[in-house]
What we know:
By secondary structure, the protein is α/β, with parallel strands linked by helices.
Amino acid sequence: MKNYFFDDNSFILQFNRIPCNSEADILSSKPFQLILRRYLNSVKRLENPDYKWILRIKQPDLIRIYKALLVWPYEEVVNLLDALSHKLNRYHFFLFTEDFYNYWRRLERYGFLSRTRHDDDKSMNKRLINTTEGFSNLVLNLYRTITEKIMDRNYHLIRQLPAGTQANISLVSNPWTFNSPYTKLTDNRFATGIVITPPLMIYSKSNTRTGLFKPVNENPLKNISINKNDFVVVAIKVGPYLTYAYIHNKFMKYAVTLGSLFEMASFEEYKDKKPDLIYVYGISEEIYDGTYYHDKENDIYAGFVSLNDKNDYFGYVKKMLLTLHNVKMIHEKKLPIHGAMFKLQLKGGKSKNVVIIGDSGAGKSETIESLRVVGEGKVTSIEIIYDDMGTFEIIDNKVISYGTEIGAFVRLDDLDQGYAYKQIDRAVFLNPNKTNARVVLPAADYGFIMKDHKVDLLLYANNYDEEKSGLEIFDTIDNAALVFEEGKRKAKGTTSEVGMTKTFFANPFGPVQHENETKPLIDYYFRKLKENNIPVGVIYTKLAIDGYEQKGPQEAARKLLDYLLK
């Protein structure tokens, strides 16, 4: 890859190729020169009269001034650079430097470290951590040294901000691409470790996901053009499936977020192996935007989303991955569940595994979080098995379920006030200043979510009914199946949909596209629930009713507790 990548929003540095051992190294580097040039151009466009003088200084001379300030007091620097002395306004120079520093920190900043196939994860992670901390400290020291020299005073309140990179990734080669067309994909930029500095704030050009992903009859890889250096690969486990997510450099923020939502596979787990699922996020060809293909010959499910600004949203990463997972599950005669499952440990030793099914914005996650609040004194623990997507399978004639993700991707506004901020040291915030602000939070251990969890109670999340409350258990399994298949909900602003909607089995990520194959599975699994006397019902979250965004899930959580404690 190139030594660095820089566009209007993000900066990526290859640490192995750019020396960053001192403040002087930073000032002498080509990336610093490029970033300074971009900043000077932005100053020109703003036409700030206080900075007119700075534009008359040649960029090499400006860098010479900064280098000199690392060693000499401001007055001596001015004397040494006598030819420039009349151009330097001390206060305005400070403001200019402060603005330049803030310009740098507003960029999305990432670092790459190359790793050999013989390095071990532990030593590589240590290098990642040391590089992250070392570079951040260098940038902070550079900023403080220069600004203190300019203003001739020391700082008394010191903030240890993440001033270097926001995330660093170790990369290794993994030549699994055994034949065409997979040889088009990069095989030398696989992430083996990611270090982030929470709270990580991510801003995107879109804040909702639109439309459905569609199956195609020909592998798009045969017809698309890919620059291998434009992508990094994050090897993750989506449920039980080994998955290679190819993320374009312009969407790097989502590559570093993936590890907070899905379990990252170790290098030994994916070394030289063919994946079950492939996702290429950031292709140029719009014709294949939002499509997926099943390569039956190699048994690979591959999804594709274009580089279009409308796709700049984490929902396009998560939901395509889950769609590929669900389609593969359907073909394996297992039933994908769009919902949440949790193990509720009640006071006195009783425990129940509860599944709540519902489309986006139905109130699944919010009800679980409300249980943490209203269950004080009654609930000893809540263990999340899955927060968005899971699978039903029959083992020993019983319906069991397991999950896909280790994190939760939830609406910030619908959580109990302050809850996300209690987890701020682990959180990744997405568009916190916009409608449908989201947060990715840790939820469960991978080993736990992949256990065979017996289903004790199945509920459909109704977010729109104003008349009913609490929960209701169906008398017959046929009536239950009809409600679940109809998939009614009131759109909550999480997608482009508005008003009342219907989605087959509340799951537009596989079952909608493959309804004929899914319908017999629903019938089969609901019959098994009946055989095992597992109650099936509706829980009224009222999440889409004005004024009930928090009260609704809390009321639903109380009634659910009352039912389970009978």
